[in-house]
Amino acid sequence: MTTMVGRGEELARLAAFVTAGTGQALVLRGETGVGKSALVNHTAASAEREGQRVVQAAGVEAESELPYAGLHQLLYPVLAELGPSQDGAWRQLDAVFGRTEGGDPPSVMTLGIAVLSLLSRAADDQPLVLVLDDGQWLDDPSADVCGFVGRRLTGSRVKLLVAVRTDIASRFDTAALPELPVAPLTREDAALLLDQRYPQLGKQTRHTVLEQAQGNPLALLELPAHLSAQQDDSIPDDFFAQPGVALPRRLQHLYGGRIAALSDTVRAELLMGALDGVGSRPGDGAAGLRYRMHNVDEAVASKLLEVDPATGDVTFRHPLVRSSVVQTATPNQRRAAHEALAHVHRKNLERRATHLAAATVDPNEDVADILEAAAESATRRGGALTAVTWLTRAAELSVTHSDRSRRLSDAAFIAGHAARLGQARVLVQADADAHASESPAAVLAAGYQALYQDGDVRSTHRRVTAAMEKLRDCGSAGSGSGSESESGSGSGSESESGSESGSESGSESGSGSESEEVLARLVILLLAIAQFTGDSGTWERCLDLVESLEEPVAERARLFSNTWSDVVRHGAGWAAPVARAVADLPDLEPWEVSRLAVASYHLDILSEYRPYLQRVVDRELETGAVASGMVMLHLIMLDQMAVGEWDEAEQIGRHVLELAIGHGHELFAAQSRGYLAQLAAMRGQAARARDLQAEVDAWARPRGLGFLTQLADSAGATAALSAGDYEAAYLYAIGITPPGSFQAYTYQASRTLLDLVEAALHTGRAARARQHALAAREAGLPEISPRLALITYGALAMTAESDKEAAEMFTLAESHPEASRFPFELARIQLAHGIRVRHVEGRAAAREFLVPAAEAFERLGAGGWSERARSEVRATGTPPRASTLNLASLTWQERRIADLAASGLTNKEIGKRMHLSPRTVSSHLYRIFPKLGITTRAALRDALSRTPDVSQV
């Protein structure tokens, strides 16, 4: 094997990489032509000599827009060898590779875990080395998965080597993988390489080549080769005519001369290969998906192509050759090649669409339809940004103005969900049919931007209402599908805005189906606006307008309007319809997933669907519907707050706040601060809660965003209760809704039921507290959602006029099938009931309720309530035991994991129950052991069993 010149340090590092006894990843980074590919191939050969299996692949620019094309190329040989199986890992890959319909769209984490599992299986008999050249051209979703996998190879028999160019940004720049920089050769090493390869080179030319190559090995090897075709021993003047032009561009010029000397037939073959992404290295794992060049011996002889001796496949010698082939072709030649490739890939929707988009010049409705279908496919696999590109091109190729307008509107709609509000506005403005600024598409894009960037609900409401009325009165709202009502971004940032800004379709003169879809999107935007206003007048006008629409637009809108608006008045009976709709989540676009998840949150049934949101959200945050992803994060955070996973909720809240600020979604940022204020209040962090509350209130109140001001008031009430300032808590609570009623269309009215009742009782307003608890029962809150049932029975127990009634209501609360899913509210009810029992039945009887309440508050980290509960436990004559205090240091999630581990479940079984990876479960146990003062899993049962038995205290 030829010795590489000047690469001693790099080769030593790569040798250690190959011989390492455990899995790892390494990224080679350097400029074009610096020798990364040579190092990659050297490493691959070394690994094979060590008895390791090597799979090589290469990123190609032609596929950088195709979601998961790079991952498929890299895994193709491995999957072909393993063969299909029925396990979850294989199903995840089927979903992203488009081999199945309607599968759950996995997140980066879920897909990464699946890839790790399959690679581990493939390496059972022989260590596996994955080698990826030109990683900068890998599509973003594939690069994200490779980064995820690369960070988790320790302990496996799998290695990953990636080479990337320094002059092109890629996902590997932020993948946090170990790197090995590949620098140009020193002057001495460059001279040695040149002398070895071209010992007869003239002195002057040798000096010039060394000066111009600047240590770049590719230039050192290519420049003298080019000179051999010249009449004299000199470099052509045009090579240095533009000294400011980068060296790779000048090398392309040299390749261009060789390409021009080929026959027309061979150049056409090279162009087909270049445009279809034929790899630059042997071992192309996706060769079966790409065009195979034929009869290109002439190009091989010209040293433009190389032949794989094992397979006979021809590949481009260097990416610069491929680029030169494309650049030297005329536009007509490129279009002809794309058209031929579209026929080659006629059974692959997205590849066919890519080539047709480049091959077609004049309007062509068939091609536009194919691009539209490809955009839908990409959207459902997390490629919203790619979908925008394809829809925009489909609009350009549309035959009729109405189809062009509709497709531009769809592109704007998806761009808005991808947090590209500015791009959405540009797309709308590109619509020549949007003859007025108040066209449906313009209203939609402007409304989306005004609402989510600026929190403008007043003028946005007027414009959207006017656009809807105009469409309705034109008689074009007949039978819309209501398909994409957006809930994603506008969807009340998840919590309550469940709606989002739909994209208004084309002009009013568009077709009926087009106008129906536009109207359906406008309806969702209007619902989002009404949600954020929290104003009864706005909601009533909104609902009246919805009822005036024809079916099925109005029918579909009712599900969202009844669950997002006022669950006290309209929410009963909607849990089952929402559950039926949610059953189709895998087949829905991300914004549809978000709006249904918002509905399930309002009905307190979100926990059942949270695992799906967790699988899809990471994917959308990278290349998909970012705004919908932020909504999903908010929803996940709220559910974590409800079930007691407060540490995790804090992390997500901070993350989505950063995302919202970064994307200019000020509305979502304020909403994130509101949720973080609520969490701080529950934890007894009164100062932080007040700071966040004030920030939210100052931004939202002048804008008329009642939803956010209620959120701030709710955090204020909870913080005051935690601190024992019951008068302040009462004032905050009645600012949301008066005692004895639930303010119409006020989201927090029912959710602050316990706050108002507790504050009223502690301030001597027992009659008001009783009035409010009875109003909750009369309003039918227990029939609406499990959480409302729990707090209604708890409020009735707290305000009961007889001890018998108090016991009955408490039993209804505590025995509710879903009571344990809301540990904070349940503990508050136990504490209040225990205090009552202590006064009536004595200290021993009270311990049954006070000890569990104290332990729950301690596990949750609910500061003020924890101190109060422990004080009540001490009042029974039983000070908290040391073991109880140790358990108090566990978070709610850690306690659940500890209990499951103590029962004998494995990490994998625990992870399945709690929707966590086994690795995450192991990390939690690693933190749990020192908190409990133990060192082994076997000691868990004893540590947990030392909790006082309340019946014996």
What does the model show?
- The chain is mostly helical and 953 residues long.
- Among the domains are: 8-181, P-loop containing nucleotide triphosphate hydrolases (Rossmann fold), CATH 3.40.50.300; 187-241; 400-654, no CATH class; 888-953, Winged helix-like DNA-binding domain superfamily/Winged helix DNA-binding domain (Arc Repressor Mutant, subunit A).
- Helix content is 63%, strand content 4%.
- The strands form 3 sheets. Strands 2-3-4-1-5 form a 5-stranded parallel β-sheet, with helices on both faces. Strands 6-7 form a two-stranded antiparallel sheet. Strands 8-9 form a two-stranded antiparallel sheet.
- The N and C termini lie far apart (80 Å).
- Residues 231-245, 280-287, 476-511 and 947-953 have low confidence and may be disordered.
- This is Transcriptional regulator, LuxR family.
